[in-house]
Batch of 2 targets.
Target 1
Amino acid sequence: MTPPEQVEELLDFFKSHSIQYRLKIGDVQQVIDEQRNKIPSEMIQGLSSKSYNLTWDNYYRYDDIREFAYALSASYPQLVTVSVAGKSYEDRDLILIKISSGGSGTRNAIFVDGGIHACEWISPATVTYIIRELVENYDAHPQYVDDVDWFFMPLVNPDGYEFAHTESRLWRKNRRIHDETNTTCIGTDINRNFDYHFNEGGSSDNPCAPTYNGGQPFTEPESRALRDAILAEANRTKSYLTVHSYGQHWLTPWGWTTEYPDDYDAMFALASDAVAALTAVYGTVYDIGSSANLLYANSGPSDDWAKGVAGIPYTYTIELRDQGPVYGFLLPPDQIIPSGIETWEAFKVIAEAVAQMV
Ligand SMILES: [Zn+2]
């Protein structure tokens, strides 16, 4: 994101140091500005509701997502229960949505979260789209709620998300101040703060780094709230889906080692079925593999902990659209609904499998 007047200087620097480079986005601000445009209203017919603002025509703010959760629970009290799983560093409620049609806590469960990384706006947008589909279209496919219980934390990092909306579009971490005398290097990468092979690669102990791990496991109120919400239902949770962007990857643990989990073949088989259903909609291609093998080493992410400590067998990190490099985190809002539609197909496959698990 070099200012135009410094481009020449930067290129000279690369040249004089023999550094190879390539351009990813020519004008970041232009892409950001385009993203603020709402999509045409005919695309969202049937999605608008009088009781909340979300219409998936744009990236909505924390207050709208929170309002959506409570509006659903007011309209569908027999299906939706909203609770507060904890408070963020800046004292925002961390909303937890349970979707269940009964069963007294005996049904297998799926836990889904979104928005761990502040700049990945397509994540909470897609997760809320799926919540809406389960609840408002329950009559069209009741088995996806009657056969499994769902737990959603659609926005794990509301402080970072709001900061990305108001101040710095590509912000990643939360907003915790580590040291009152240093307010330039703040925030922790919540997805490096979980206590399983903590700080064993692909994670930084420098508070200025975008992947700062917090120094110790579970230093962050957001990671503690997510941990406690997952543990509360872990004994019946068969799948944990943590939704990120971008890259179009369906990832299994582990991040800390290139070794595969013992049950990798079963995890891969279910992922393949889910991805096939997703791709069948628009041809969107995903690749499947373990984080460390397909992407890069990363230690302390929530998925490794959910499998390694909480013992949830089918644990995946989903990296949504696109593949980059043109948009990346700056995915235009006209892709929100297609992302929701295709990802829902994958979630249906996961739900059908989870319902059958013993
Ligand atoms: Zn992410």
Target 2
Amino acid sequence: MFRLSKRSEQNLQGVHPDLAAVVHKALSLTFVDFMVTEGVRTPERQRQLVKKGASQTLNSLHLPQADGYAHAVDLAAWVGEVRWDWPLYHKIADAMKMASSELGIPIEWGGDWSTLKDGPHFQLPRGYGA
Ligand SMILES: [Zn+2]
């Protein structure tokens, strides 16, 4: 059982409460500790990420949606240090999916995308709550 750091809690500010609830629940289920590295993004930061090739879309769910909340978070595996190995992200995704089904809140994992897989990325389905 892990706890979110202050920084992770801060990075959840502005994230849709349902997605934040899934993150909190997942932390009680996961075998791999993780931190929240990013939630809400400004349009300016999103433009910079696209320019750098770090993001593919200007229509990211990290941007505040119609309800005022970001609908995406990026998580980083924490094993005494941040690690990016895929097996860790599969374990985190297992916990996120279990939390999602326990809470009845649908989520999508960037690691399940067929192209440009994004292991740290989790989002509510586009149009969620609309
Ligand atoms: Zn992301």
